């Protein structure tokens, strides 16, 4: 018997002596694409259709090939197909249900392609007809809800979630997707929570469920009451919240692992050999090429959970003793679509061995640690737009955390110490820190390290002003908590002070270039006020009296930078230009720093002259400082420990609108409905009675 080949819906005999034969399902599709009712000649037409293997490519292609007018002519048949798909979802035979789900995906995507054209017909009318839309969509959502909550097939649940993701992402701007009104009215929120609270379901479908929830929360979130926002904000079930945290932790951990693998591969490659020969001159350029695609969808889910649900804050510090212990899923995992690095959902309820702590006896992994590591990678390179968005979102999440009283409590808890190995950008003037030298410290130290690292590594021509402002705000909010609760944190504050002074130096050195694009005085004022916080309240939160002395030492040692800043802002505040007012604010803020410099410098010079010392040591300067505090006069500055709380709607709406659009496009692009091959499905549903 001659071999048959299948291509584009055609069955062709290899002898090529006869005309190609169309698959039966393709012939049935062709009948739908006529103006006649296909069930007139064949009463069992719809029953037979859903026993046929779906040809997604042909069906979508056929829909896309028609113009709006042609499609309107067959609207009744399209409506009928859509309605019979919904009916088939209630069938007992799983194969019918699978085929109905896949057909619905193709219909929605194919019809939407036409909605982009000038014909301008409404997608809901085209799919179901206005008169039946409410009832049909209610039935569809109820069927999907039942399938997701049932004990049945995991493959069916996977397809249901993919159909829902298809529905949500069918338009770039999800708020313009009118179909979602029916998803709001007929909520599947509880079904999503059920998936996240069950270990088996979470392992199989957690990633899709979390991304779906993050997208649904963003539907017209500023224009109307979104039930998914309301419901997410009041979830208090521990198993559900922990399940959501686990899914997010796994996805971020997977990104961290892939980055680490690429980094190691990179270091053992050609560039490493070259660097060994010629020194470190190529290090920065070589490492810039290490790139793993960021995962904004999962980061958005983390943001929404942290921002909307106070109870989720506890999940951030929830340690997971099973992390790093590899287990095999108890049931087959459905094939996942091929997606770019960093976007593939992890397939099990475990974290990779890369997340294991250095001390094998101490389990130190949690969601916040994984997130901080992720942030340290994506915030390295902000030149790429996706990384810039990711970096900004990381800082927004950290802003929400830094404002939360409970989060601050565990961040600063001396009994919760961790080693957090952040990724540091390779720089010629510093050695790579050895991982094993990392001390165990409260988690706030890792947050501060991340902020210091960002400050030090992004002083460049394309200056990320917005990210710097957020960075300084996070530090300020943490200091406000420490001052309020009198938390004496044992941290290397000198590194922060040094980074801040170098930032001021950079702003002054590049005044002309930066002022053409940014109001640098806003940032300068924030930095100066951080020093004012330390000067005014440092005795309440710095770990020891000597730490306070060291603060004065750093200000005196680097006095030239503060003098130069004062000269610059004085010059601009006495001119009648656009920078007069913001520059004068910095002038007033410098009053105490200048008082310290003007008070101690003469004393130090006098001490040096009396003792015939040309250059004083640090200890000698500190001795002068300690013995002259009593004659120093400082002004009390108001509002140093006050800050404006984060508000998404008023300041970040445009950013999130663009971010969600980007995520929607990416999810749609990577959504594959045919990943569950017919062979896999037939194995799972081996008997059709």
UniProtKB/TrEMBL annotation:
Signal peptide: none
Record carries keyword Cytoplasm: no
Keyword Plastid in annotation: no
GO CC annotations on file: cytosol; membrane
UniProt keyword annotations, A-Z: Membrane, Transmembrane, Transmembrane helix
Domain Armadillo-like helical: 435-671
Xref: SUPFAM superfamilies: ARM repeat (SSF48371)
Coiled coil ranges: none
Compartments in which it is found: Membrane
Name of this protein: ARMD3 protein
């Amino acid at each position: 018997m001659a071999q048959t080949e299948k291509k584009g819906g055609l069955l062709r005999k290899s002898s090529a002596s006869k005309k190609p034969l169309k698959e039966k399902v393709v012939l049935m599709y062709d009948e739908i694409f006529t103006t006649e009712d296909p069930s007139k000649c064949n009463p069992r037409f719809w029953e037979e259709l859903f026993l046929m293997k779906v040809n997604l490519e042909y069906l979508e292609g056929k829909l896309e090939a028609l113009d709006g007018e042609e499609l309107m002519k067959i609207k009744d048949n399209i409506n009928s197909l859509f309605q019979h798909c919904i009916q088939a979802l209630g069938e007992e035979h799983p194969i019918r249900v699978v085929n109905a789900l896949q057909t619905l995906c193709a219909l929605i995507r194919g019809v939407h392609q036409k909605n982009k054209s000038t014909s301008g017909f409404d997608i809901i009318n085209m799919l179901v007809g206005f008169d039946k839309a409410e009832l049909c969509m209610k039935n569809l959502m109820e069927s999907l809800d039942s399938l997701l909550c049932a004990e049945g097939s995991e493959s069916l649940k996977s397809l249901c979630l993919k159909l829902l993701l298809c529905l949500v992402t069918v338009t770039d701007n999800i708020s313009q997707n009118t179909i979602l009104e029916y998803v709001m009215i007929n909520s599947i929120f509880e079904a999503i929570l059920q998936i996240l609270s069950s270990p088996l379901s979470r392992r199989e479908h957690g990633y899709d469920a979390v991304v779906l929830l993050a997208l649904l929360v963003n539907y017209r979130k500023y224009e109307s009451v979104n039930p998914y926002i309301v419901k997410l904000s009041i979830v208090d079930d521990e198993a559900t919240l922990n399940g959501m945290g686990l899914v997010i932790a796994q996805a971020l951990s997977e990104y961290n692992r892939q980055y680490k693998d690429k980094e190691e591969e990179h270091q053992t490659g050609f560039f490493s050999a070259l660097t060994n020969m010629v020194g470190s001159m190529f290090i920065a350029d070589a490492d810039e090429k290490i790139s793993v695609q960021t995962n904004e969808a999962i980061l958005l889910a983390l943001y929404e959970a942290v921002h909307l649900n106070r109870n989720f804050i506890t999940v951030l510090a929830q340690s997971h003793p099973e992390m790093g212990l590899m287990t095999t899923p108890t049931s087959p995992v459905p094939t996942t679509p091929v997606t770019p690095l960093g976007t593939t959902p992890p397939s099990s309820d475990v974290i990779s061995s890369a997340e294991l702590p250095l001390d094998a006896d101490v389990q130190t992994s949690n969601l916040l640690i994984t997130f901080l590591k992720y942030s340290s990678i994506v915030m390295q390179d902000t030149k790429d737009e996706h990384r810039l968005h990711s970096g900004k979102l990381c800082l927004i999440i950290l802003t929400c955390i830094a404002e939360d009283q409970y989060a601050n409590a565990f961040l600063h808890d001396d009994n919760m110490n961790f080693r957090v190995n952040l990724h540091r950008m390779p720089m010629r003037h510093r050695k790579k820190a050895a991982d094993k030298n990392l001390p165990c410290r409260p988690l706030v130290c890792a947050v501060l390290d991340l902020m210091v690292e960002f400050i030090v590594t992004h002083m460049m021509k394309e200056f990320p002003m917005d990210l710097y402002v957020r960075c300084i705000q996070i530090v300020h909010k943490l200091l406000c908590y420490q001052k309020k609760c009198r938390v004496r944190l044992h941290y290397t504050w000198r590194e922060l002070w040094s980074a801040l002074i170098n930032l001021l130096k950079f702003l002054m050195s590049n005044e002309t270039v930066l002022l053409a694009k940014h109001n640098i005085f806003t940032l300068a004022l924030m930095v100066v006020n951080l020093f004012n916080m330390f000067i005014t309240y440092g005795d309440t939160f710095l770990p020891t009296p000597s730490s306070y002395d060291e603060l004065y030492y750093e200000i005196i040692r680097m006095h030239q930078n503060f003098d130069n800043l004062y000269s610059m802002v004085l010059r601009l505040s006495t001119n009648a230009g656009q920078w007069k007012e913001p520059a004068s604010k910095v002038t007033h803020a410098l009053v105490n720093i200048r008082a310290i410099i003007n008070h101690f410098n003469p004393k130090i010079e006098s001490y040096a002259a009396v003792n015939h010392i040309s250059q004083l040591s640090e200890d000698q300067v500190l001795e002068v400082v300690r013995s002259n505090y009593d004659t120093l006069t400082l002004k009390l500055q108001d509002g140093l420990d006050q800050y404006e709380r984060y508000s998404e709607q008023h300041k970040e709406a445009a950013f999130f609108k663009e971010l969600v659009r980007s995520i929607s496009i990416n999810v749609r692009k990577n959504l594959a409905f045919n990943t569950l091959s017919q062979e896999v499905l037939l194995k799972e549903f081996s008997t059709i009675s």
